[in-house]
């Protein structure tokens, strides 16, 4: 026996296979279909960026930057980071690749992202996101379009039931600052009862306390001052336009005045689609407006709004997806007709039938194996007395006429 130990997979990574992989692919295919319907342009983005792309965009004090990033020095001594999200990289590309010429530009992307978190159900260290952004659009219609698209996506995935859209506004820069000051005053009075993390956040980033998952913080977040007391007239009007747009499009929403997002770049609209069907990992899709982000990357003020969703969490909600059965199983019951097995299989596949060839193991058992595997049709091939190939078709939901037509042009050996 070998004494070499097989390496274990990296904690927090998943090998997605079979029915689970089908659900995953269903999510990305549905997203791809919808982004075309909403006329979003596709982008393929690098998996890593200079660390500052994320630290400057997301904010040094955020959980993602301070605890969750996979950062490393490359061989040239440069600090690089595996992307923990898409937005910052897309914003960087907007500035460095001259995408401004396309503004307002609607961008869709998907792929793996990386965060050093404690792995559990619905929370991984490598996970995957679908992502949609509208860059260079200041109008609330952009927020509405993204939200309608997100809602539509959940409908098309068949998981909209039991998922609610929670909506908030964080106001403009001015409203947000006033709210922030009031939150500091309020939480200071309860400082000793807060979790260590929240005590730490108090002066630097008090909004983050509202987003805390620590039970010690929950009693205080409920009665904290809300943004409504500090909203400027413009911010209030912006939010009203978003909500009336959603109402016009028939998208249900709920106001959650305590909803803040975990990243620093958000202004105005902030939202999460939440479910109670995934335990603690209930947020499936989240985003908001990030009008301040481009400036933090050294670019011109550029209004933008976007969202991202965890593909694994969406896929976990998708039920009843099995790996599809074959349209035709070609069974070679006698090895002397193997060439026709390979030939008919090729012809059927070229005609668009999902086809599998069964030509290994004991020839007598192959037919039973095919019945057991299950397919819409079995094409069984045997040797005739004249040396030619005989075939018979057994149907289980397959289309006899179409299969026969596909084989019409095939010249038997
Ligand atoms: P959470 O509050 O669950 O940590 P988040 O606010 O950090 O989520 P975002 O940064 O908004 O998440 O990312 C968007 C989406 O990506 C989330 O709504 C979720 O569906 C998914 N997501 C985030 N972190 C993970 C993870 N570690 N594993 C799997 N999916 C994740
Ligand atoms: Mg998180």
UniProtKB/TrEMBL annotation:
EC id: 6.1.1.21
Positions with a binding annotation for L-histidine: 85-87, 115, 129, 133, 261, 265-266
Record's catalysed reaction(s): tRNA(His) + L-histidine + ATP = L-histidyl-tRNA(His) + AMP + diphosphate + H(+)
Domain (Aminoacyl-transfer RNA synthetases class-II family profile) ranges: 1-333
Keywords of this entry: Aminoacyl-tRNA synthetase, ATP-binding, Cytoplasm, Ligase, Nucleotide-binding, Protein biosynthesis
Nucleotide-binding as UniProt keyword: yes
GO cellular component: cytoplasm
Any one of the GO BP annotations: histidyl-tRNA aminoacylation
Cross-referenced InterPro entries: aa-tRNA-synth_II, aa-tRNA-synth_II/BPL/LPL, His-tRNA-ligase, HisRS-like_core, HisRS/HisZ
Gene3D superfamilies per record: Bira Bifunctional Protein, Domain 2 (3.30.930.10)
Listed GO MF terms: ATP binding; histidine-tRNA ligase activity
Places the protein is found: Cytoplasm
SUPFAM superfamilies cross-referenced by the UniProt entry: Class II aaRS and biotin synthetases (SSF55681)
Recorded family membership: Belongs to the class-II aminoacyl-tRNA synthetase family.
Subunit structure and binding partners: Homodimer.
Protein name per UniProt: Histidine--tRNA ligase
Organism: Altericroceibacterium spongiae
């Amino acid at each position: 026996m070998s004494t070499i130990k097989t390496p274990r997979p990296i904690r927090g990574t998943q090998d997605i296979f079979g029915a689970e992989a089908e659900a995953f692919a269903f999510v990305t295919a549905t997203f791809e279909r919808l982004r075309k319907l909403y006329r979003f342009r596709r982008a393929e983005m690098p998996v890593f960026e200079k660390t500052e792309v994320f630290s400057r965009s997301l904010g040094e004090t955020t959980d993602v930057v301070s605890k969750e990033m996979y950062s490393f020095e490359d061989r040239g001594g440069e600090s690089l980071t595996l992307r923990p999200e898409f937005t910052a990289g897309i914003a960087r590309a907007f500035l460095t690749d001259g995408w401004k010429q396309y503004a307002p530009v609607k961008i869709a992307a998907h792929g793996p992202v990386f965060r050093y978190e404690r792995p559990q159900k619905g929370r991984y260290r490598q996970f995957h996101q679908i992502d949609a952004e509208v860059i260079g659009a200041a109008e609330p219609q952009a927020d509405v379009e993204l939200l309608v698209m997100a809602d539509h996506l959940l409908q098309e995935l068949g998981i909209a039931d039991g998922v609610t859209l929670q909506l908030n506004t964080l106001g403009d820069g001015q409203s947000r600052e006033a709210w922030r000051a009031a939150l500091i005053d309020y939480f200071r009075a309860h400082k000793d009862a807060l979790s260590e993390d929240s005590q730490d956040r108090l002066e630097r980033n008090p909004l983050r306390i509202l987003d805390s998952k620590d039970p010690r913080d929950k009693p205080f977040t409920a009665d904290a001052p809300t943004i409504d007391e500090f909203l400027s007239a413009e911010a209030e009007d912006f939010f009203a336009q978003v909500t009336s747009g959603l109402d016009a499009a028939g998208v249900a929403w709920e106001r959650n005045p305590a909803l803040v997002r975990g990243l620093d770049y958000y202004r105005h609209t902030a939202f999460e689609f939440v479910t109670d069907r995934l335990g603690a990992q209930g947020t499936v899709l989240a985003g908001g407006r990030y009008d301040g982000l481009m400036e933090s990357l050294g670019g011109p003020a550029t209004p933008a709004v976007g969202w991202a969703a965890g593909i694994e969490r969406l896929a976990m909600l998708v039920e009843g997806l099995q790996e599809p059965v074959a349209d035709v199983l070609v069974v070679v019951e006698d090895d002397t007709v193997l060439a026709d097995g390979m030939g008919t299989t090729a012809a059927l596949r070229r005609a668009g039938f999902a086809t599998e060839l069964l030509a290994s193991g004991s020839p007598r058992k192959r037919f039973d194996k095919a019945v057991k595997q299950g397919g819409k049709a079995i094409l069984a091939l045997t040797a005739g007395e004249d040396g030619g190939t005989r075939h018979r078709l057994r149907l289980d939901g397959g289309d006899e006429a179409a299969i026969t037509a596909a084989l019409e042009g095939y010249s038997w050996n």
